[in-house]
Amino acid sequence: MSYLSHFNLQEQPFRLTPDPDFLYWSKQHARAKAYMESTIWLADGFVVITGEIGSGKTTLLQSFLSELDDDVVYAMVSQTQLTATQFLQAVLTEFGFKPFNQRKVELLDTLNMFLIEQYSLGKKVVLIVDEAQNLSHKVLEEIRLISGIETHKEKVLRIILAGQPELRDALESPGLKQLVQRVRLRFHVGPLDRREMQEYVEHRLEVAGAATQLFEEDTFDKIYRYTGGVPRLINTLCDTALLCAFADEKRKVGLEDVAAAVTELSWEEHESNTGIHEKLQQIQKREVNDSDVTRIQVRHDGEIIEELAFPLGRVIVGRSSDNEVYIKSKFVSRHHAQLVSDENGCVIEDLNSTNGVFLGERQVKKYRLRDGDVVSLGVHEIVYHDLRLRNEVFEDQLDSRPDEIAEDMADDIADDMVNEGLENSLGEGGSNDQDSAVIKL
Questions:
Q1: pTM, 2 dp
Q2: Residue 250 pairs with which residues in a beta bridge?
Q3: What is the DSSP string of 122-183?
Q4: DSSP character for 239?
Q5: What are phi and psi of 439, to 5 degrees?
Q6: In this predicted structure, what is the pLDDT of residue 240?
Q7: How far apart are CA 237 and CA 398, in angstroms?
Q8: Which end of the chain is more exposed for a tag (fewer CB within 10 A), N or C?
Q9: pLDDT tens across 360-400, in order?
Q10: β-strands 438-440, 303-311 pairing
C-alpha cells in the first residue's frame, strides 16, 4: 500500500484476508482455541465453534492448524454446499485421495480404512469444516455417522465444525439430536468489547511495524460506534481512515479522519451501539410512496405487527436486524429469503434457510407470488399485495365516470384507499381468496 512508507509500516495492518500472525487473543478467541485444541487429546473430540460474520473464526482456525504437531493429520473443508456424497469426496480429497469415481459405499470404506491405518501408525486425525452453517441436514447426519468410526478401544476421528449462528439453529433441529449428543464442547465467538477493540487495533499496528501509536486516543470511541467490535469491520474502517490521513499528509489518524472514512464507506452506526432497531421501525412504518409496487403485512398469532412497502428491487427477510424485513424468531434464519419485485410482480426465493421454503406441502426454491398470497415463516406470516393492481382498479373506476365528476371521484377513492385496511385493499377488482397460496418456511 502507498501509505506504508508514510506511516513507517512494514506490512498492511488491516488486511481482510485471514493472517494468524495478526490474530489478537481476546478472552473469547483464546477460549475457542482451547476448545479446538481439546479435540487433539480427547479421543472422541467433537467441537462446534460459531460466531458472527467477520468475528475471526477462519483466522482462528488457521492459527490452530499452524500449531498442530507432526502426529496430527487433518482435512480442512470450506466448500460446504454439497451433497452427502460430494462431502465425502471433498474429505477424502483433502486426505490425498482421488475418489471421484467411487460410489458412496466405496467412499465410506476408503475413509474407514484410512482412519484405521492412521490410528495404527499412532496418528491423530482431525476433520475441520468451515462455513458449516451451509451444510444440509443429510450432510450433518453423515458427519455424525463418520464420527462414530472406531477401533475396539476408541473413536479415531476428531471433528471441528465452525460457522455462523445459523449453525446453532440447525443443530437445534429435532432430527439432529443424535449429532448434538456427540458434541463435547460448544462456544460462540462474539464481538470485541470497547477495551478489546482498542487493544486489537494497537496490536495489529504493532505487528505491522508501527513504532508509535498512529490513532489518536479520541478516535476509538467513534471506531467502536461504527464497528460494534466486529474485527472485519474494524479492519475496513481503520484501513480507510489511514488512507484518509495519508491523503491529507497527516502522520496520525485523528477523529476527522475516522469521520471522513465513515462518510466514504457510507456507514451507519453499528446496530449493537445505537437505536438502529428504532430507526428500522420508523422506516418500516413510512407512508406508501408512488414508487412502491409491493406491500406486505407481517403477522403473528393473527395480529398485524408490521406493514411495509417497497419499490422495484430486492429486500431480504430474516432474523438479522440489518435486513429490510426483520423478524426476530428462532424459526427464521438470519438471511432466510428474499423478495424480488420486478415488472411482472414479486418472486420469493429461499436463501438456503435452515427450514426451507414451502408451497403448501411442496418445498420450493423460487416462487412467483400472487396478490393475496400468505407466506408462513415459522410462527410468523407475510401477506403479499401488488400495489399496481390496486392502481389499475383506481384508474378503471376513473375512466368509467364522466369527465366532470372524475376529479371528485379521484378524491373520494383516494380517501377510501388511505382509510381502508390492507385486507380490503383490492376491492372488487382484486384476486379472490380462493386464489391465495400458503407458503411455509
A1: 0.60
A2: none
A3: T-EEEEEESSGGG--HHHHHHHHHHHT-B-SS-B-EEEEEEE-THHHHHHTSGGGHHHHHH-
A4: H
A5: -115, 125
A6: 95
A7: 54
A8: N
A9: 677 778 899 998 888 888 788 889 999 988 655 545 554 55
A10: unpaired
